[in-house]
Specification:
Blueprint (H helix, E strand, L loop, with lengths): L9 H21 L2 H17 L5 H20 L3 H18 L2 H18 L2 H17 L6 H17 L2 H19 L4 H16 L3 H19 L4 H16 L3 H19 L4 H16 L3 H19 L4 H16 L3 H19 L4 H17 L2 H18 L5 H16 L3 H19 L4 H16 L3 H19 L4 H16 L3 H18 L5 H16 L3 H18 L5 H16 L3 H19 L4 H15 L10 H4 L4 H16 L3 H19 L4 H16 L3 H18 L5 H17 L2 H18 L5 H16 L3 H19 L4 H17 L2 H19 L4 H17 L2 H19 L4 H17 L2 H18 L5 H16 L3 H18 L5 H16 L3 H19 L4 H17 L2 H18 L5 H16 L3 H19 L4 H16 L3 H19 L4 H16 L3 H19 L4 H16 L3 H19 L4 H16 L3 H16 L8 H17 L2 H19 L7 H8 L7 H14 L3 H17 L6 H9 L1
């Protein structure tokens, strides 16, 4: 300023400038840069207003420019810093003052270092050294300073060995010049300590800081900013060591000094707050961190302005906290603010910018946006490669980040390549014992763990542990983290006790290092919860998850995604336990958080979504319609929750609701990620599984093809997800019975796994298991066993002999042996499985219960029903203790017990079990769940066995209605229900109805399972059975042969199912009176069953009964009794004394006694049979009616006609109520009654009975040409015979004869009439019988030649049938 025209003298100006400069220097010690700038700018304005300078004024000008450089470089204002150092250099050159020139070169190097132009910076420093050395001042402090500056550049480049070398050169000069107690010495020790800290040598670093502190304290006292800076550095070292309390103590000491020196509003205060915030962040005290970061930011904004790089760094720190809290939008906002400052201030290629890109990449990684994350990391890498040496640790860090993304994407080879590049850099720059190398070993271990190379993974973790123990000692968080990782591997290996041990070691360290509420501690609790869940210790798991939840609630807000995640984990446990209401409640809490956290709308909308969930359950009527486009609820975490809800609905059988949830998830995924994102693909995967469960196999295949299309667009051809999709398609083809397609898919999957994973990976073993399951369904048992053994070899080499996977393999092999009928082998396998699982899980795990259940099935198949019940009760006891009374697994066990009770003939017990099962399923599952339908089906089977056919049909129709509402029409389960209904119609004699529903079943099975499926063969068998009873024997044989062709192509020749078909064919031949053929079939069946089922199986007993019947028909009564007794012995040992089958055998033996004329013995046996059947079946069962008929026949033979009629009428009453008016048995019974009335001379009653018997014949479900109709005509003949109505007799015989010729052929050898006289058990009349009967009529008419002709014809038929020794043939000869 000037006062008018008056000019100040040069001496006055120089004096004023010196005074102003002195004020600025003094102010710099006490105040912030902003106040200091005021005085410097005033001094500069005065200098620039002077026209004629002097050396004094130029000296002040130089000092002002130099000091302004220092201020602006502190503010990261590179442009102004460069300007002022250039002005200072110009003045220095003007004076040719080498000292000033050298000082400017050093400062210019500092600018270039700040710009990241390290080569130019080094050039300036080395140029300065060269000048200084030429001056002969190689031991001068100015040379020391240049060495120091070079060390700073190397430090930024991460060349720590070079740094130490430069600092030591500087130190040597300073020690020789200044002595050991000078502040410059302290400053050098301090910087060496910082380098040691970068190298992870924290103890050495602290030692250096203490040396520096000792000098500074003696020189400056306790309250100097330099002392504060040293405390800060020590705090940082302690923080890296995990000594957070010590770190906070140091920072507080630093803060106290700076507050007393600078007041509340100095950048140094802000820096200390930032450091404290970093510790709070590491401790998981995010609210505390936010608070101090915001305090720091407020100071920085007021002292440094809005555009200082330090402000950008604080924004980054705030962004990190928001990222940890899951507030990703807030995090992005902070990082963008940081970039907005950094890009114009520091330029596009500054390391600070690269660091911010890295932080943004981490958020994208947390969000699952891996492509975006890779993009950010590569931008960061590009900058770092431009500005740093290729071997800088920061480059290694970026490779590490990219490797982590590749790992998450399943690109393990790419990930490993990145980790190895990172590891190579760290080894070359940091040495083998740096924490960064420990981190690399951890990451590489993680890859090996993903690949199933568990031992290699453990080896990597142990390497990491060795380094960390060396650096940090036994009690550092890094040590705890390594133990945690080792626990994860042990958990994956099924070594649960070792896993828990590792987690407890990790927990102990973390609890001693952190406060009890740290996120790391929460994470360990979470991992322990997972192990307990895998062990089936669900209460322990819930307890751990609740501890996890408690910590997280204290760290983050109630609405944080990690809280939602915790609720989801708890929900999954409840879901496993079948506590679906509790599971839904947890999922809803999770959904509410995610909706309120990630969507820009009010929480009331989240509440509305709760209403939607309840609506889907049918529990609440309230719901609101939401316009989703207005709401904008498009966050991926919400999509995850929808997926979880979908999974619950799927487990409950609410498939439509599940699809609805998945579609909501898909809508979010498609709108936020696009069609070709792996997360979208995952939802398609879930949809595909539901379609598969619904039997919509074509839909499922379509979805999997979409899935594959996405994977092939986004993933490499050999990605594990593609292999997994092939696996899933293989399972669909497996369910469809397209076994070749299934094998093809499993092999494609296998090929990928082999190329990606080691040959010894558990996933390879699992693929062998899948292929084995196809082989065992195909009956290729040896191939199946071979595959299971390959699987076993892998799993045992990885996990040892005591892993759950080994137990699973034994279980699978047990299934094979079960299907082969090698029940002892199966039990052996299950016992091996049981031994392993009990040693791992204890005696009270669900896996143990499942094995007991499998053993129960074996005992049931063996007919060891008491053992089966014992196993089921053991299974039930375990599941009740784990899952409570109301879980669907409990219901399943009750179902299995009910089936055993059916086999035991304990029908009331069976119904009681099925009702218990039904009650549970109705309370826990949707009313339309398949499990409900299955229980109804089982109850229907009881009613069939009880002869309550109308009840049975009603129950089957309920089951069918549920199945039709749940599954597609063309689903195997629908076909199965039609099969069961066909069984009822068969027993009712409604053969056309039976054929109709069997054909419906067949059509479904053929369309869904193909021509060659076992269940198709089973339906052919059932149709064959109906044709047999309709007398369509050729059609029956045709059906059985079709069944046989399928089973022989899919099963081994020695399978019990093959044996059953041979048995059925034997029955047809028996009905055709082709007894040799029948015996041949029975013996083939017997041979197979004896080799597969052993000597004591019910199936063996049934064949003995059938052979006994042939002997009976042939008149070999002793042989028949022998066979029946063999059958009886087996059944008594397997079924006990009170089973309907036992009653049936007593009836068969009684029939033989009747034929032998041992009527009292026959009545005794029929009485035993009747007693058993009445106790089990009740008084109104068709089997009871049959017993009354057999007793009536004996009474008739004894001449006890009133007793016989009484028995027939009892039988008639039952059959009319159960079989209806039109069943052939009704006609036969009336004809029998009529025959007795004739013998009693009650001709009118006889005529009425004949009339009643003709009605069923006219409307019979069997048609007009069935052998049973012929039998009835024969029975009516006996009535006309007693009345002497010979023409009527001939008419009846001719009708019977015509039918038998049509259905049985010309040469049928049965002697049914003779058997009728002995207590008929076979109602089929035959050609030979009819010929003999007609001969008797002609004899009575005196037509002896005709009589002789028919007798001789009957004798020829019997002779051709190899029945030369049959008693009836003797009677024919007597008649001749």
């Amino acid at each position: 300023n000037t006062m008018g025209n008056k000019q100040s003298s040069p001496s006055t100006i120089s004096h004023n400038l010196k005074s102003l400069y002195a004020t600025a220097v003094h102010c710099q010690k006490c105040n912030g840069d902003q106040k200091v700038l005021f005085y410097y700018i005033q001094a500069l304005n005065q200098i620039l207003s002077i026209h004629h300078t002097s050396p004094d004024i130029d000296q002040i000008h130089y000092d002002v420019d130099r000091d302004l450089f220092d201020i602006y470089i502190r503010q990261y204002d590179i442009t102004w810093a460069k300007t002022f150092i250039a002005l200072a250099l110009e003045i220095a050159c003007k004076f040719q003052d080498n000292n000033k020139i050298l000082e400017c070169l050093d400062k210019q190097g500092k600018v270039k270092r700040f710009e990241g132009d390290y080569d130019s910076a080094l050039l300036d420093y080395y140029k300065a050294i060269e000048i200084k050395l030429k001056k002969g001042t190689h031991k001068g402090l100015d040379v020391s300073n240049s060495y120091f500056g070079i060390g700073d550049v190397y430090c930024d480049q991460g060349k720590y060995v070079n740094v130490i070398c430069m600092y030591k050169k500087s130190l040597e000069i300073r020690l020789s010049t200044l002595g050991s107690n000078h502040l410059s010495i302290a400053d050098t020790w301090e910087n060496i300590g910082i380098v040691y800290s970068h190298q992870g040598k924290y103890n050495e670093a602290v030692y250096m800081f203490e040396k520096s502190l000792k000098i500074s304290l003696s020189a400056l006292g306790n309250n100097h900013p330099t002392i504060a800076a040293t405390y800060c550095n020590m705090g940082t070292a302690y923080s890296h060591q995990g000594k957070y309390d010590d770190a906070i103590c140091m920072y507080m000491k630093s803060l106290k000094i700076n507050l007393s020196t600078y007041g509340n509003n100095h950048p140094s205060i802000a820096t200390t707050y930032n450091n404290i915030g970093n510790v709070y962040s590491d401790q998981g005290k995010y609210d505390g961190a936010l608070y101090v970061y915001e305090k720091s930011l407020k100071i920085q904004l007021s002292t440094l302005g809005n555009n200082h790089p330090t402000v950008a760094n604080t924004y980054n720190n705030l962004g990190n906290i928001y990222s940890y809290q899951g507030k990703y939008d807030n995090a992005f906002y902070m990082y963008e603010k940081s970039l907005k400052i950094g890009l114009p201030t520091l330029g596009n290629n500054h390391l600070t910018i690269a660091n911010t890109y890295c932080l943004i990449g981490q958020v994208y990684s947390d969000q699952g946006k891996y492509d975006n994350a890779i993009c950010m990391y590569k931008k960061s890498l590009k900058i770092r490669l431009l500005t740093l040496d290729n071997n800088h640790p920061t480059i290694a860090g970026t490779y590490n980040n990219i490797g982590n993304i590749y790992s998450k994407q399943g690109k393990f080879d790419d990930a490993m390549s990145m980790f190895e590049k990172s590891h190579k850099i760290c080894l070359s720059t940091l040495g083998s014992n740096h924490p960064s190398n420990a981190t690399m070993y951890i990451n590489m271990g993680s890859i090996y763990a993903h690949q199933g190379k568990y031992e290699v993974a453990i080896c990597m973790y142990e390497k990491s542990l060795k380094i960390n123990l060396l650096i940090f000692g036994n009690n550092h968080p890094n040590i705890a983290s390594t133990y945690n990782n080792m626990g994860n591997v042990y958990s994956d290996q099924g070594k649960y006790d070792e896993a828990i041990y590792m987690y407890e070691k990790s927990l102990k360290i973390n609890l001693s290092t952190f406060c009890n509420n740290h996120s790391t501690i929460a994470n360990v609790y979470s991992n322990m919860g997972l192990v307990y869940s895998r062990q089936g210790k669900y209460d322990n798991a819930i307890y751990m998850y609740q501890k996890w939840l408690k910590i997280n609630l204290s760290i983050v807000c109630d609405n944080h995604p990690i809280i939602a995640s915790t609720y989801q984990k708890i929900a999954k446990i409840y879901s496993i336990q079948g506590k679906y209401d509790d599971a839904f409640y947890m999922y809803e809490k999770s959904l509410k958080i995610n909706l309120s956290t990630f969507c820009n709308y009010k929480s009331s909308i989240a509440t509305t979504y709760m209403g939607l969930v309840y609506d889907n359950q049918g529990k609440h009527e309230k719901s609101l319609k939401i316009d989703l486009s207005t709401v904008g609820n498009n966050h991926l975490t919400i999509a995850d929750t929808y997926n979880d809800l979908g999974n619950i609905y799927s487990n409950q059988g609410k498939y439509d609701s599940a699809i609805c949830m998945y579609e909501k998830s898909l809508k979010i995924g498609l709108s936020t990620l696009g069609f070709d994102h792996p997360i979208v693909a995952n939802t398609y995967l879930l949809v595909g599984k539901v379609y598969s469960d619904q039997g919509k196999y074509d839909n499922a295949v379509c979805i999997y093809e979409k899935l594959l299309k996405i994977y092939k667009l986004t993933l490499s051809n050999n990605h594990l997800n593609i292999a997994s999709a092939y696996n899933d398609m293989g399972r669909v083809y497996f369910h469809q019975g397209k076994y070749d397609n299934a094998i093809y898919m499993f092999e494609k999957s296998y090929k990928i796994y082999l190329s990606t994973l080691s040959n010894n990976h558990p996933t390879i073993a699992n693929t062998y298991n899948n292929i084995a399951r196809v082989y065992y369904i195909q009956g290729k048992y040896d191939d199946a066993i071979y595959m299971f053994e390959k699987s076993h070899k892998i799993t045992s080499s990885i996990f040892g002999n005591k892993h759950p996977t080994i137990a699973d393999t034994y279980n699978n092999m047990g299934l094979i042996y079960d299907l082969q009928g090698k029940y002892d082998n199966a039990i052996c396998m299950y016992e091996k499985s049981l031994k392993i699982t009990s040693s791992i899980f204890g005696n009270n795990h669900r896996t143990i219960a499942n094995t007991y259940n499998n053993m129960g099935l074996i005992y049931d198949h063996q007919g060891k029903y008491d053992n089966a019940i014992c196993m089921y009760e053991k299974s039930l006891k375990i599941n009740l203790s784990i899952l409570g009374n109301n879980h669907h697994n409990i219901a399943d066990t009750y179902n299995n017990m009910g089936l055993v009770h059916i086999h035991q003939g304990k029908y009331d017990n069976a119904i009681r079990m099925f009702q218990k099962s039904l009650k549970i399923n109705l309370s826990t599952l949707d009313n339309n769940h398949f499990a409900i339908a299955r229980t109804y089906n089982n109850m229907g089977l009881v009613y069939v066995n009880q002869g309550k056919y109308d009840f049975a049909i009603s129950i089957f129709e309920k089951s069918l209605k549920i199945s039709l509402s749940t599954f597609a029409y063309y689903h195997p389960i629908i076909a199965s229900t039609y099969n069961d209904m066909g069984l009822v119609y068969f027993y009712q004699g409604k053969y056309d109805s039976a054929i109709c529903v069997y054909k419906k079943s067949l059509k479904i099975k053929l369309s869904t399972l193909g021509n060659n499926h076992r269940t198709v063969a089973n339906t052919y068998n059932n149709i064959g059975l109906v044709y047999d009873h309709q007398g369509k024997y050729d059609d029956a044989i045709n059906m059985y042969e079709k069944s046989l062709i399928i089973n022989l192509s899919t099963l081994s020749n020695n399978h019990p199912t093959i044996a059953n078909t041979y048995n059925c064919m034997g029955l047809v031949y028996f009905h055709q009176s082709k007894y040799d053929n029948a015996v041949y079939m029975y013996e083939k069946s017997l041979k197979i069953n004896l080799s597969t089922l052993g000597n004591n199986h019910p199936s063996i007993a049934n064949i003995y009964s059938n052979l006994g019947l042939v002997h009976y028909i042939r008149g070999k009564y002793d042989d028949a009794i022998y066979m029946y007794e063999k059958s009886l012995e087996i059944h008594l040992s397997t079924l006990g004394n009170n089973h309907p089958i036992i009653g049936g055998i007593y009836g068969n033996i009684a029939g033989v006694y009747d034929r032998q004329g041992k009527y009292d013995d026959a009545v005794c046996m029929y009485g035993k049979s009747l007693k058993i059947n009445l106790s089990i079946l009740g008084s109104n069962h068709p089997a009871i009616a049959s017993s009354y008929i057999y007793l009536a026949s004996v009474y008739d033979h004894q001449g006890k006609y009133d007793d016989a009629v009484c028995m027939y009428k009892k039988s008639l009453k039952i059959n009319l109520s159960t079989l209806g008016n039109n069943h052939p048995v009704i006609a036969t019974t009336y004809s029998k009654i009529a025959s007795i009335y004739i013998r009693q001379g009650k001709h009118d009653d006889a005529d009425n009975a004949v009339c009643m018997g003709e009605k069923p014949l006219k409307s019979s479900a069997l048609g007009y040409n069935h052998p049973s109709i012929a039998d009835t005509y024969n029975n009516m003949e006996s009535v006309f015979d007693d009345e002497g109505k010979y023409d009527n007799i001939v008419c009846m015989y001719e009708k019977s004869f015509k039918i038998k010729l049509l259905t049985l052929g010309n040469n049928d050898p049965s002697i049914t009439n003779t058997y009728n006289n002995m207590g008929n058990v076979n109602s089929d009349q035959t050609i030979a019988t009819t010929c003999n009967n007609m001969a008797a009529v002609y004899h009575n008419q005196g037509k002896f030649d005709d009589a002789i002709a028919y007798n001789e014809r009957a004798a020829t038929i019997l002779d051709d049938a190899h029945l030369q020794a049959h008693p009836y043939l003797a009677k024919i000869y007597a008649s001749i």
